[in-house]
Amino acid sequence: VHLVESGGGLVQAGGSLRLSCAASGDTFRINAMGWYRQAPGKQRELVADIISGGGTPNYADSVKGRFTISRDNAKNTMYLQMNSLKPEGTAVYFCTAIVRAGLGFLNSWGQGTQVPVSS
């Protein structure tokens, strides 16, 4: 499974941005998808994730009420709507998918998209 993010870019604090993650390849093997972010000098952290087939999305406490994760299965695309962005949200945002592989699973990652938030 190949993942490509888009939609990043400079945004002012308080603004909004929508990230997209297009999946290709054996997308029927995807069990779950999610967004992670990595700020400069910090570890990569989970932002939100969602399992295939529906269910309640999971969000990091720091983004609850401001970010929304969604999927369009017909387009094999996942989105992250980010509202009320804060300067501490400045990071590279990565798309990831948990993919069934044989008897196990593997993680597929996109290349990341930069989101600088100016104060």
Quaternary state of this entry equals single chain
Total number of helices: 0
Give a quick account of the main beta sheet: strands, pairing sense, barrel closure.
Answer: 6 strands, antiparallel
Helix proportion: under 10%
- Overall geometry comes to globular
- How far from one another are the termini? 37 Å
Rg, Å, rounded: 14 Å
The topology string of helices and strands comes to EEEEEEEEEEEE
Unreliable runs: none
Got a strand count? 12
Structural class: mainly beta
**Rounded mean pLDDT score:** 96
Q: Percent of residues in beta strands? A: over 45%
Describe the structure.
With 119 residues, this protein is mostly beta strands. The strands form three sheets. Strands 4, 5, 6, 9, 10 and 11 form a six-stranded antiparallel β-sheet that branches. It has a four-stranded antiparallel β-sheet with strand order 1-3-8-7, with no helix packed on it. The N and C termini lie far apart (37 Å). The relative contact order is 0.32. The mean pLDDT is 96.
Topology summary:
Blueprint (H helix, E strand, L loop, with lengths): L1 E5 L4 E2 L4 E8 L5 E9 L6 E7 L6 E2 L7 E6 L4 E6 L8 E11 L2 E6 L3 E3 L1 E2 L1
Parallel strand pairs: 2-12
Antiparallel strand pairs: 1-3, 3-8, 4-5, 4-9, 5-6, 7-8, 9-10, 9-11
Q: What is the structure about, briefly put?
A:
This protein has strands at 2-6, 11-12, 17-24, 30-38, 45-51, 58-59, 67-72, 77-82, 91-101, 104-109, 113-115, 117-118. It has 119 residues and is mainly beta.
Please tag this protein with its features.
12 strands; single chain; 4-stranded antiparallel β-sheet; 6-stranded antiparallel β-sheet; mainly beta; 0% helix; 56% strand; 119 residues
